[in-house]
Amino acid sequence: MSLVSHLEELRWRILWSLLYWVIGCVICYHLIPRLLDMTTPLLGGNKLIFTGPTEAFFAYLNAAMVGGACLVAPIVLYHILMFILPGLERGERRWVLRLLPLSIVQFVLGCWFSLKMVLPTTMQFFLSFGTETLVPQIKIGEFISFVVTTTVLCGVIFELPIVLFFLSAIGLVSSRFLIRQRRMAYFLAFVVAAVSTPTPDAFTATMVALPILINYELSLILIRFSGK
Q1: CB neighbours (10 Å) of residue 165?
Q2: How far is the C-alpha of 195 from the C-alpha of 66, rounded, in Å?
Q3: Mind spelling out the 3-state secondary structure of the chain?
Q4: What is the pTM of this model?
Q5: Cβ atoms 24, 105 nearer than 8 A
């Protein structure tokens, strides 16, 4: 294919991905009330509020945009793979096709870990500061942003074993290299967690950094087991 043909293919794949993303946003927008019903128990009996006429709408819209991206991620990944697979070697292409379904499972597992472990623990910690004179009043925009950001972040973190295993499968990293870089990896885990978490406190950063460290050690086990 010529350069113009490649660009034409890329344009159409981007347009199709955007179309599916818009559809995913519409679906997620209508599912947000169910998401709130699932996550409001994290508030410990407190009610959500909004202090501006448009705050609730934009909170719904932001959550729908992120949720729509997650919902149609497999379709977007399909278009990305169809565009780049012809340029990969046979071994690389084989490993990409093998690990793609597992990457989706890992992302869902990371989201589940966030909803069941990280969010309940962090919300309980933050709400524990409430007293009779200090009543928590949480705005819906901040609450949805906190839940969505933490959940998606944990989903991405759980992709770490897949990424490192793929890099080891094509010979770019080894278990020895990862062991030598363990201290740096631990340091970067806390840096990434501190920068990417929606709140600047050390407790939330630690709760997000722990899955990174666990998945890093899991990657070492997988790479050792595979002999790479």
Answers
A1: 21
A2: 19
A3: CCHHHHHHHHHHHHHHHHHHHHHHHHHHHHHHHHHHHHHHHHHCCCCEECCCCCHHHHHHHHHHHHHHHHHCHHHHHHHHHHHHHHHCCHHHHHHHHHHHHHHHHHHHHHHHHHHHHHHHHHHHHHHCCCCCCCCCCEEHHHHHHHHHHHHHHHHHHCCHHHHHHHHHHCCCCCHHHHHHCHHHHHHHHHHHHHHHCCCCCHHHHHHHHHHHHHHHHHHHHHHHHHCC
A4: 0.76
A5: no
Per-10-residue mean pLDDT for the chain, 228 residues long? 80 90 91 83 81 87 88 83 76 75 84 85 82 83 85 84 79 80 85 72 76 84 72
